[in-house]
Amino acid sequence: MSQSRRRLFGFAALFAGPAVWWGTVLLAPYAIMFMISFYSKQFPFMIPDFQFGNYIHLVSDPQYYLVLSRSLKIAFFVSVVAFFLSYPLTYFMVFKVKSPRVRLLLYVATIIPLWVSYLLRAYTWKTILGTEGILNSFLIWIGIVDEPIQLFLYNQFAMVITMAYIFTPFMVMPIYAALEKIPRSLLEASKDLGIGKFGTFFRITLPLTIPGILAGFTFTFCLAAGDFISPQLVGGPYSNMIANVVATQYGIANDWPMGSALSMVMLFIVLGIITLSDKFERIGRLNLG
Amino acid sequence: MKRLVKTVAVSAALLAGVALAGSAVSISNAEAGELNLLTWEGYSEPIITQKFQDETGCKISLTYVGSNDEFPAKLAGGSSIYDMVSPSIDTTGILAKMGVIEPIPIDILGDNWLDIYEDFRTHPSITGDEGWMPPEGYLWAVPYAWGSINWMYRADKFDTPPDSIDLLWNPEYAGKLSLWDDKTNIYAVARYLYGTDINVYDLNDEQLAEVRDKLIEAKPQLRKYWATAGELIDLYAKGEVWFSNSWGGYQSAILQEQGIPVVEFMPKEKADGWQDAWQIVKGTENMDCALKYAAYSISPYAQCQMAINVGWSAANAEAVKECLSKEQFDALHQGDFIYLDNLDFWQEPVRVDKMIQTWNAVKAAQ
Questions:
Q1: Which CATH entry fits the domain spanning B149-272+349-364: 3.40.640.10, 3.40.800.20, 3.40.50.720, 3.40.190.10?
Q2: Of residues B70, B353, B366, nearest to A251 (C-beta)
Q3: Per DSSP, what are the bridge partners of residue B35?
Q4: Of the four, A71, A233, B219, B308, which is 20 to 30 A from B114 by CA?
Q5: Which CATH superfamily is domain B34-147+273-344 in?
Q6: ipTM
């Protein structure tokens, strides 16, 4: 066996498994979904077809546009809240905590909730935010309010809080990596040149962490936009998100063509966001060049 | 060469691992004598089924649904993980026409069959209808339980007890009401808008649009849509909700046990009625157990356990005469199946998909 053929054989042996896996559980389902999105529907059956009715319906019925824009809006707020929680925390961990052991401990403490079931964590927020929940009981106890405040739970506010909490680790991790990579010499140089703390932060630290921030935003945004558990658990009558509508098309309406069309739209939105964030990151790199 | 062998060995091991995991899953699925029931909360609790499991060796495992529309959707996947389902009979015809349920021979049901209410036993959804008749001597479904979609309120929150669903549009109760996450809300609101004589199962586009807008108008008063019995119980127990529709007799009983003062009532717009029946999923590998369970479900023992402990009205009224006290018997309206003038029993809507679409539009609305 020649060297190159042997190498080829080795390559095939190593990657055949992953390729089969990738093809059967990722590529094929997407292809099937794409195909079904053109099928037509005769309840309770779907009919193999090639027509754009589902996509036309998607555009002409305002309910889909409404839910889609609601999903994107909530995902945006979740990302913003997660960012403002994560950046100072991560900055503190990387630059202010001197002991590496304490830093590691804090880092692990931040991401350890990922090991706890999503459902459990979302339920916990119900207990905190409810009419007779911990927060209301506390507010009444210290005398700030007389009547429990209803506005904490079963609305979009509760969803943003819950998802920001749940997805914060996905913001912390890339920002942490970006902050840690910044050479300390750059910060010292800035100081030597007489730039103050704020100037150094806004002109050196923040620009250098933009790739991390973008990665964090992309993660959080996409996870939140596609979430369907928090609307069910802590959302209210105005909280339906796009993933709930997709789940309903498959699980209740028995309308796979419509569910597939919606999924395709969602898929392209997510791909668009990833492309966009990639573009931004490149621009950032150039500017720093 | 050594490296090559190593690579191959590692890949083979990985593949074997995947294959092994796959086969382990399929083994547990094929295990004989296990009935997977897709059903409602409270329907096949151990208190009802323990005796059956002990006697037949058929093990029962449960998956709950929160809406009748889940049955066709779950069975449409062509998955045979469920052996039996218990939708309301307005859904049976859909399943029969889809070809996902198996006809059930009448003779396996024994004498108990004739003790079931005649109206229920001879219903077209049970015996089949034009275009979807089962073979001679067979049924599509075995009647199990019935009841209402009653309305319920917290007695301590209302000075005058409500007698109508018009509360849904009363801003005084903003954020204090709840509705079942189900298309059947359309029926209730259609009766509210057009009177109780309207055929709610055949609404035209204009009526559906009006009902939709009326349901959207109710949204500010809603705290949350409830999706499971357990969720509604939790909403009342935590003080979140004061008024809602409910699965008559079930959630109210559990809440009263917890000391929450809830009262069920039938509004002047009347209420929906439901009749549920067991159906066998086509292609089940546990036909023997499924047939035995279908027969067991209408036995006096099973019907009594259900009526006494869970609180649904029994399909086999003769059987529960023996075990229920006079008060219990009357409370479950067992004497007057179809207490009746007041219940609008569910039928398969002429345009099911339109109904579901309308309800989805309500949920999506701003």
A1: 3.40.190.10
A2: B70
A3: B60
A4: B308
A5: Periplasmic binding protein-like II (3.40.190.10)
A6: 0.88
